[in-house]
Amino acid sequence: MHYRRLGATGLQxxxxxxxxxxxxxxxxxxxxxxxxVAAAWDHGINxxxxxxxYANGExxxxxxxxxxxxxxxxxxxxxxxxxxxxxxxxxxxxxxxLSRKHVRDACDAALKRLRVDYLDLYFCHRPDPDTPIExxxxxxxxxxxxxxxLYWGTSEWSAAQIREAAKIAKHHGLQGPSMEQxxxxxxxxxxxxxxxxxxxxxxxLGTTIWSPLSSGLLTGKYNAGVADDTRLGQEGQTWLxxxxxxxxxxxxxxxxxxxxxxxxxxxLAPAPLAIAWCLRNPHVSTVILxxxxxxxxxxxxxxxxxxxxxxxxxxxxxEALTA
Length: 323
Description:
The protein is of the alpha/beta class. It has helices spanning 30-42, 58-70, 100-114, 133-145, 159-172, 190-195, 197-203, 238-245, 252-266, 270-279, 294-300, 303-309, 312-322, and strands spanning 3-5, 12-14, 16-19, 47-49, 78-83, 119-124, 149-154, 179-180, 206-209, 286-289. It contains 13 helices and ten strands.
């Protein structure tokens, strides 16, 4: 495993990390979850990502139980949560958002579910148009001063919103955002590569990127259509299917097919090749992997070797086919 600093912080996170979105508490049982976390840990992964809204909090309960069962040393791993959408199926007005009240309540609930005394990373899962950014910055700083959170950041905020949060924090002597969790893959590049470009040096921003495989599109599993037993084919995932497949103008499926064809020509599995491409970006602190089987996770870990061994000319072909 390789380790990278989380932006300008001193926290060394594994270049590949493991997340619970759409799997823990929903798609797989506790036994499978335990095997996955154990395999991740055994292969050097030290960052585990979660959120209050994943399976309405059940993903955090499962992860907390599994980590406790495996007796992982608390000083050896980092765990995250995210706040915005709430954990209730139909949250009341105060049970969601980025108000001071919900930020505090959600943090306390995440600590209990994850069975830890503090969160290493705490993300504002999306911007909240109903809460002033200044209120959220003060709330996050308060959690840090209480020792409940070590670093806070954002997920899918605009560069202008991140910059505003950092400006408020600096003006009042508060802890500003240290990291952002954006989607980043061969088919979704603009925010990480263009919009956030000034922030890496300006704020020392780190990134914990999600969906390196575009929810499986870059593995080739949807080349022939969406099957019922796939992530996009699951009940209640219509919104995700629309986001991943896009419209005819985006040609996302066509571009993904070209990528998987190139991977086959090279004799490589498309998944680790797509993940390796993400790792080549020096502004990516860690790539969050999702998996429902240990074999799947182990294959994705092959990206570490590919990032160093694949020739520049091949990466140029990859980018040309997916542009």
